[in-house]
Amino acid sequence: MPKLRFARVMLHVFAGVLTCAFIFPFIAAGKREALVRRWSSQLLGLCNVRVKFIDQSGGQIADHALIIANHVSWLDIFVINSWQACHFVAKADIRSWPIAGWLSAQAGTIFLARGKQREVRRIYEGLVQQLEQNKRIAFFPEGTTGAQGGVLPFHPNLFEAAIEAKVPVLPFAVRYVDAQGQLHPAADFIGEMTFAESMKLILASGEMTAELIQLPNIPTEGAHRREVAQAARVIVAKALGVSLDSV
């Protein structure tokens, strides 16, 4: 069964490549976003992952904000994209991944090369402009994936883009649970685990529910990026029931 499911995932990825190559260049941005949402939802379905959206924001509107979330797995991007298609900020080395890197670029991913200050500044200015144009920008401030049951420190640098663009930060908490509501161990993508190993583990596991929890906006007016980053980490950890005392 996992082999058959893996074959279906590969066919779906191939269909995504064809869509990006032959359809994306000829359609409007809104239609591209709709296709990204549908493709992401279908991919999660093939991986036996069901998405449950939980609104704890008090009904706040999600537009015109910098979106952040804790980072558990490569699944996170598709979970968020199944809700709303976003332009993600990702490490530059992802661009070199076979197929996945090209697909990410076609979906509007913004690749950030660490250590190259001139390029970082150029990309940062682009983020500010896109936020001011009401585009959905998302990133994972932990900078890497972490095991469920904890929240790593949030790097504050990119929060500055929200402050300069005068938009709030919209935080999400992401977790993956089994049929009993317990954290699903197959979701963790950590350490030296490869993408292939993670995919094999997910396809061989039972049904998984991805909970995408929208939290209240964090205002940025007059704030410092470190304050905003810490506030975001605290609210995400609280939603996940995680204590930060030992981290």
What this model shows, in words?
This protein has 247 residues and is an alpha/beta fold. The protein has a single domain, classed as Cobalt-precorrin-4 Transmethylase, domain 1. It contains eight helices and seven strands. A seven-stranded mixed sheet has the order 1-7-6-2-5-3-4, sandwiched between helices. Helix 4 links the parallel strand 3 and strand 4. Helix 1 runs antiparallel to helix 2 and helix 5 crosses helix 6. It starts with a helix and ends in a 7-residue tail after the last helix. The relative contact order is 0.18. The mean pLDDT is 89.
Order of helices and strands: HHEEHEHEHEHEHEH
Shape: globular
CATH topology: Cobalt-precorrin-4 Transmethylase, domain 1
Derived from helix and strand composition plus strand pairing, the structural class reads alpha/beta
CA-CA gap between termini: 40 Å
The CATH architecture category equals: 3-Layer(aba) Sandwich
Please, what is the CATH homologous superfamily?
A: Tetrapyrrole methylase, N-terminal domain
Number of helices: 8
Could you describe the largest sheet, including whether it forms a barrel? 7 strands, mixed
Helicity level, as a percent range?
40-55%
- Please tell me the overall pLDDT: 89
